[in-house]
Inverse folding.
């Protein structure tokens, strides 16, 4: 999938690379090597390396950077979860009238966004003022009785997705280990009960996405787009374990066509429900409405 790009008259004012010094991946090393390359390629442009100090710190840093600079490029040296934090911080500042640009270096366990979308060299894109403006997926619900709003750059998942994701986030993964964790989660899977379009059903997995694949072993959409103002919905209704295993194996090899594509979706939880947005996992309230909507070309980025 190739996101649309355009040349902009507004140049990047500075670059900040956010990394996790305690990452199990290559976050720090990749951030430092990229900073060196960008310094050589873009002399005179301010380039900062900024380490995170705690969970969700990247979101705060991205917001503060966006508020303090005219047109910053905020790069996350991370996997999908770290980039999720940066995107949410950047979009929060954007809602305040700021104009940040984001990008990601693939330094995590899951690098779905980078693997699916990224094609451009960051330095060349900055030099030529080439920016992509892509869709993001917005989720509105409640946690502990309080309004909860998040943006996903790639996918939202219920059921198998967050249950496997909790384990996938714990350690650095090879293809074999990732497949083993997904299989283990499959064997221990607890279906999730959701009301969709007024119909309540049990689902083994319920995925909302705008990328072609999620994790290294699941091809979740044949034809997706990050610029059409819609997202793909892929549903695995509750079924016998052997049938589900066969479906997952087919998905990993041949892919699976999404059930439908839409710009807005309303769900309702039956009990407290885990949801995964990109690499981050949250627990939504029981008996809570969940509104999912596409934000058409809501994020300026380099991919």
């Amino acid at each position: 999938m190739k996101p649309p790009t355009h040349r902009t008259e507004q140049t990047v004012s500075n670059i900040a690379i956010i990394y996790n010094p305690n990452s199990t991946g290559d976050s720090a090393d990749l951030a430092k090597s990229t900073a060196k390359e960008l310094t050589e390629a873009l002399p005179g442009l301010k380039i900062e390396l900024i380490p995170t100090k705690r969970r969700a710190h990247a979101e705060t840093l991205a917001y503060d950077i966006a508020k303090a600079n005219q047109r910053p490029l905020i790069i996350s040296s991370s996997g999908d979860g770290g980039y999720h934090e940066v995107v949410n911080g950047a979009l929060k500042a954007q809602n305040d009238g700021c104009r940040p640009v984001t990008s990601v270096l693939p330094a995590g366990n899951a690098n779905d966004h980078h693997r699916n979308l990224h094609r451009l060299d960051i330095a060349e894109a900055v030099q030529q003022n080439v920016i992509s403006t892509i869709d993001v997926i917005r989720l509105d619900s409640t946690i502990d009785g309080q309004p909860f709003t998040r943006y996903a750059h790639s996918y939202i998942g219920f059921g198998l997705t967050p249950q496997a994701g909790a384990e996938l986030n714990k350690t650095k993964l090879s293809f074999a280990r990732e497949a083993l964790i997904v299989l283990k989660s499959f064997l221990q899977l607890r279906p999730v009960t959701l009301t969709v379009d007024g119909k309540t059903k049990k689902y083994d997995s319920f995925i909302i996405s705008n990328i072609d694949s999620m994790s290294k072993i699941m091809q979740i959409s044949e034809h997706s787009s990050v610029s059409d103002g819609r997202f793909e919905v892929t549903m695995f209704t509750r079924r016998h374990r052997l049938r589900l295993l066969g479906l997952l194996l087919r998905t990993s090899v041949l892919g699976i066509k999404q059930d439908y594509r839409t710009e807005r979706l309303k769900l309702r939880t039956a009990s407290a429900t885990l949801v995964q947005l990109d690499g981050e996992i949250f627990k939504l309230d029981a008996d809570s409405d969940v509104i999912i909507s596409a934000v058409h070309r809501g994020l300026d980025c380099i991919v």
Observations:
- The two ends are 11 Å apart (CA to CA).
- The chain has eight helices and 18 strands.
